[in-house]
Amino acid sequence: xxxxxxxxxxxxxxxxxxxxxxxxxxxxxxxxxxxxxxxxxxxxxxxxxxxxxxxxxxxxxxxxxxxxxxxxxxxxxxxxxxxxxxxxxxxxxxxxxxxxxxxxxxxxxxxxxxxxxxxxxxxxxxxxxxxxxxxxxxxxxxxxxxxxxxxxxxxxxxxxxxxxxxxxxxxxxxxxxxxxxxxxxxxxxxxxxxxxxxxxxxxxxxxxxxxxxxxxxxxxxxxxxxxxxxx
Length: 231
What we know:
By secondary structure, this protein is an alpha/beta fold. The protein has helices spanning about 20-25, 75-80, 95-105, 180-185, 210-225, and strands at about 5-10, 10-15, 35, 65-70, 85-90, 110-115, 140-145, 170-175, 195-200, 205, 210, 225-230.
């Protein structure tokens, strides 16, 4: 039986934070999550020795997400503890077993999938796997454009691709969401849609978010909640 739908505010994740002052400005808008990229190949990489102030969230209610790409398990666990993260987001070819190992260490996991480029890399332990193989191993999914292993691309994901997917977990929708997309998001009717992930299209420069753009987007999303399943 299909789950009953209810109108509840969709979660907002603002990813790619780099500057403590900008973080404080963004947190005044009360996003549900902020994200930090621990992948050296990204323009928004926090660096080997990031400023501890970057991880001090003013107020309450905003969770910290660390974004990793095929990092050693020990490295993810170390960063999780050092930066007092709340979740990790895995953008690479991490296997279900890898994800389970993190969860068993008390680290909640978001696993990223790219519907336009399915996760089937040879020689990386993920050949032939799809999202159902991860359903018992992670807490949430995130759907992005871009290719696995490269992090987000900033290009718009074709949301219609998700209509044909049987998505077994709550998920966040990413992939080039911009300030003008609130109306389209409100019109979506995707079961298990949990939140949206925004990044580059809300920036004045890489890693620096435009609080004005974010404020208008968040207000529009939250004032007109999206119909989605009660989880």
